[in-house]
Amino acid sequence: MQIKQALRQAETTLTDSPSAQLDAQILLARVLDKGREFLLSWPEKEITHEQQEHFLQLLAERQRGIPIAYLTGRRAFWDFDLEVNTDVLIPRPETELLVELALQNLKQENQLIADLGTGSGAIALALARERPQWKVIASDTSAGALNVARRNAETLALDNLDFRPGSWCEVIATDEKLDALLANPPYIDPEDHHLQQGDLRFEPKNALVAGAGGMADLQTIVQQAREKLLPRGLLLLEHGYQQAAGLQKLLQESGYNDIETHQDLAGLDRVTLARR
User: Fold this and answer.
1) Which CATH superfamily hosts domain 79-275?
2) Is pLDDT above 90 for 46?
3) CATH 1.10.8.10-classified regions of the chain
4) Residues 228, 172: contact at Cβ < 8 Å?
5) What is the CATH number of domain 3-65?
6) Which residue in 168, 204, 235, 272 is a FRET match for 30, CA 20 to 30 A apart?
7) Average pLDDT over residues 157-173
8) What percent of the chain has pLDDT over 70?
9) What's the mean pLDDT when you consider all of the chain?
10) pTM for the whole thing?
11) b/e string for 131-161 if b means 16 or more Cβ within 10 A?
12) Is 195 exposed, middle or buried (0-12, 13-18, 19+ CB in 10 A)?
């Protein structure tokens, strides 16, 4: 079978995908261990029977809804690729806003930063890569997630990260004071119907869902962080687009200052920052 025939067949197989052509190209490129440009440059190249069988298997899994990132084991974030698997959330482009705001607001060379609930390590790795003089703590309650994050750090040859198992600010030692604390915690209401749609169906629920209407972990971090931040230390939190007002109120009541909410590229409230 030729590449162009395999892709044509795949598009008719992926009837439930809104991006069947792109999905097919990504999966076949993965099978062939080539870039997508190879498929377009060599459409008449023959693929082996084993490659065809592997491709059909991936197509069947994609038709069931398995996310492309889990099928390929890779996801682009910031300016690098990450290993991902079902132990971690699939990094989203909107989370890059956390990285952008941290870089804009933290100007000193020597900073101690924490990324709590690091998952694949996306946020922590981006900051460590952009600011090699910073020390970045990356924590998670999931041993599987921390293993993924460590492997990603090794792939990127980063040595300014400190990986710690544990829940939220409990991983910060009593004598440590942070210049900034970042988190993309679970913030989806357990009753939210979106959990039954798209990629969310296959991602780890403990990294998605929080009690109190999705606010429970945000509340915990806000309460714990004041004791861990230096004076004027920065708190940066990703949240749901309907949670900004509630989070701002919580921050005000907890004694934070300079509270701002920033929108993602879709114009939705996505990240709120505050200073101790």
Assistant:
1) Vaccinia Virus protein VP39 (3.40.50.150)
2) yes
3) 3-65
4) yes
5) 1.10.8.10
6) 204
7) 97
8) 100
9) 95
10) 0.92
11) beebebbbbbbbeebbbbbeebbeebebebb
12) middle
